[in-house]
């Protein structure tokens, strides 16, 4: 789903309203899979005088929730022709089926409150995300940056040189190899006190997933610099890392930021949901 400017082929652009929520300024545990990270909602409401699109959307969401009991990733459509709606969900690769189902069900329950009846939406929780769109909307590139969270930074001092940059490079190499060669296009692991996680959308080819990971890593360096933790969400993949040296002096962390030109951005508060292993 396009997160830059959602555009119908036959009408003017409809930008997203993108709202960022921040609740805690510290990492939360893996048990909090249903906490909200970010949402993107199309500004245009469903033009649905006969209720056809609403019915198709309801049918789509029922199908996605049902499949989440069995699969970590699923994509499908509902309806026909100009009333067709495409949707998918993705659960974090280490979630059980029941945890995946609970996560996707939470999105289903909160979607109308978060976005209302709109032509396209994306909701990302700590353990899963779901997106849908009416056919005819322009896609942004797979490596388009949607959202970032940059953590605290190490104080500049020779005494505090723990080889963070080198360790991060090694950990990033592990992510690229892990997602391409592992199951579910998912990898989580650690390298010398640096925990990492990466995942691609389930329909990406292995090589495309590797390319997406590389782009996310490059953007983590560009956007977050020497932050000791970061989360980078692209259109088709995301990564997170968390470096935990012993008693290292830190600067204050920065809140998450929506990366796009939307008509309206509210920074209320951000869940720092580090997927990697507290």
From TrEMBL:
Q: Which Pfam families match?
A: Stress-antifung
- Compartments it resides in: Cell junction, Plasmodesma; Cell membrane
Q: Which GO terms describe its molecular function?
A: metal ion binding
List the GO terms this entry assigns under cellular component, sorted alphabetically: plasma membrane; plasmodesma
Tell me the membrane topology, using the record's own terms: Single-pass type I membrane protein
Q: Which ranges carry the Gnk2-homologous domain?
A: 34-137, 145-246
**Which GO BP terms sit in this record?**
plasmodesmata-mediated intercellular transport; transport of virus in multicellular host
Note whether Nucleotide-binding occurs among the keywords: no
> What keywords would UniProt list here?
Cell junction, Cell membrane, Disulfide bond, Host-virus interaction, Membrane, Repeat, Signal, Transmembrane, Transmembrane helix, Transport
Q: Spell out the Gene3D superfamilies in the cross-references.
A: Gnk2 domain, C-X8-C-X2-C motif
Q: Would you say which domain of life the source belongs to?
A: Eukaryota
Has UniProt tagged this entry with the keyword Metal-binding?
no
Q: Which family does it belong to?
A: Belongs to the cysteine-rich repeat secretory protein family. Plasmodesmata-located proteins (PDLD) subfamily.
UniProt name for this protein: Putative Gnk2-like domain, heavy-metal-associated
């Amino acid at each position: 789903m396009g997160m830059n400017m959602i555009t119908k082929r036959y009408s003017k652009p409809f930008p997203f309203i993108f709202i960022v929520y921040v609740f805690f300024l510290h990492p939360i545990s893996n048990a909090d899979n249903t906490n909200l990270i970010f949402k993107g909602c199309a500004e245009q409401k469903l033009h649905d005088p006969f209720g056809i699109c609403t019915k198709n959307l309801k049918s789509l969401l029922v199908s996605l929730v049902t499949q989440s009991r069995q699969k970590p990733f699923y994509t499908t459509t509902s309806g026909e022709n100009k009333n067709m709606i495409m949707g998918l969900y993705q659960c974090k690769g280490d979630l059980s089926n029941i945890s995946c189902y609970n996560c996707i069900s939470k999105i289903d329950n909160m979607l109308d409150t978060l976005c209302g009846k709109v032509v396209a939406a994306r909701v990302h929780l700590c353990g899963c995300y779901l997106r849908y769109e009416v056919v005819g909307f322009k896609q942004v590139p797979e490596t388009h940056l949607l959202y970032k969270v940059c953590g605290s930074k190490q104080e500049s001092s020779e005494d505090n040189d723990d080889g963070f940059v080198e360790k991060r490079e090694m950990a990033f190499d592990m992510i690229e190899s892990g997602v391409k060669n592992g199951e579910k296009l998912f990898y989580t692991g650690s390298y010398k006190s640096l925990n990492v996680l990466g995942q691609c959308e389930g329909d990406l080819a292995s090589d495309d997933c590797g390319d997406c990971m590389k782009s996310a890593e490059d953007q983590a360096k560009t956007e977050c610099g020497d932050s000791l933790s970061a989360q980078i969400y692209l259109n088709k993949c995301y990564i997170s890392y968390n470096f935990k040296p012993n008693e290292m002096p830190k600067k204050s962390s920065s809140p998450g930021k929506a990366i796009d030109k939307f008509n309206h951005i509210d920074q209320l508060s951000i869940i720092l949901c580090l997927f990697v292993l507290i």
